[in-house]
Amino acid sequence: MEPIDTDICIIGAGPVGLFAVFEAGLLKMRCHLIDVLPQIGGQLSEIYPHKPIYDIPGFPIINAQQLVDGLMEQIEPFKPTFSLGERVNELFQLDDGTFVTRTGDETEVRSKVVVIAGGLGCFEPRKPAIDNLEAFEGRGVAYMVKNPEAYRGRKVVLAGGGDSALDWTIFLADVAEKVTLIHRGDTFRGAPDSAEKVFELAKEGKINLILQSHIKAIRGNGHLQEVEIVGRESEISVIETDHLIPLFGLTPKLGPIAEWGLNVDSSAIIVNTVDYSTNVPGVFAIGDINTYPGKLKLILCGFHEAALMAQSAFKYVYPNQKLSFKYTTVYGVNAF
Questions:
Q1: Up-side HSE of residue 293: CA atoms within 13 Å toward CB?
Q2: Which of 248, 264, 295 is the last residue of a domain?
């Protein structure tokens, strides 16, 4: 696989990482973003896409996914590129000063600047307590849906009661041969309209909905073949399936970032508030992943950090050019 060459490699495609693309684009800097999650938007899209947000300037109220969609529209003129569903494992610097960012899928990005906008860190799935679960990872068990087409014509069991479980149940109902959703409760934590749609699909016989139940065991011969379920009356049933997707949320961890030689305090990267640079020249950290005196973990603060970061990043990308600050209200986005 050929390396991807860009000006700035942004680790994290959440709202702050997306806004960093805008600020970099204004200064004619190209960006490539990497995120461990399979979709753009970070925890806003993965954990609470329908959550209302009240502190975005100019919007008395906006839900999380609407904010992500707006940011994507805002950065479209700058044509960023993405590697999604990939975890960054390595970050090192070549003799000429170029940074190499490498993922577990062997994607390699070469850039003059690295911006860590990883939110709360690398999200790890919350795994249910099922014996032999990890033995079937990659062999029928997955904790996120990277490619929905992989489930076309297959039997799929999902477990969970939040937005992700509801949304993927609805989507896969038109893709998979058979979809079963298992939930411990009898009501859902996700959006009411999504829950209503799931109940409608079950009533129409398009999905199998099993409530007040949990998975006790999984079995297979080299690949997942069946799921054993304990019901509300402690009755046990077995479902044949090709795939199990437990969707119980994600736990943030600093992950490989802790091994990159950065100054860290309590799982956050220490930065200089002049430009949110780290102790490694050319590496910046913005958003919830960083820490400094007076730090507030707010999206709008991350936007501010992205703007100042871009001003300093320009010096690494264009060391022989003088930065001339311009107002977008005067010149328009396409003038930059």
A1: 1
A2: 248
Q: How far apart are CA 204 and CA 211, in angstroms?
A: 17
Contact 100, 90 (CB under 8 A): yes
Q: Please enumerate in sequence order all residues whose Cβ is within 8 A of that of 157, keeping only pairs 6 or more positions apart, or say none.
A: 180, 181, 182, 215, 227, 239, 241, 243, 244, 245
Dihedral of CA 33/78/15/37: which sign?
negative
Number of domains in the chain: 2
Is-contact 145 38, C-beta < 8 A? yes
Tokens at 198, concatenated:
């799931």
Residues 206 and 260 in one domain: no
| One-character DSSP codes across 88-145 | EEEEEE-TTS-EEEEETT--EEEESEEEE--TTSEEEEPPP--TTTGGGBTTTB-SS-
CATH number where 316 lies = 3.50.50.60
- What does the alpha-carbon distance between residue 302 and residue 130 come to, in Å, rounded to a whole number? 38
Sole residue written with tokens 């099993």? 210
Indicate if the pLDDT at residue 124 is higher than 90.
no
pLDDT for 122: 60
Closest CA to 279 of 291, 287, 296, 288: 291
Rounded to an integer, the average pLDDT of 219-235 is 91
**Model pLDDT for residues 260-299, shown as the tens digit of each residue:** 889 999 888 999 999 999 999 999 999 999 999 999 988 9
Please state the φ and ψ torsions of residue 295, each to the nearest 5 degrees.
-55, 135
pTM of the model: 0.67
Q: Which domain holds residue 26?
A: 4-124+251-335
Sheet with 236-240: list strands edge to edge.
214-220, 224-230, 236-240
**E strand spans, 176-235:** 178-183, 208-211, 214-220, 224-230
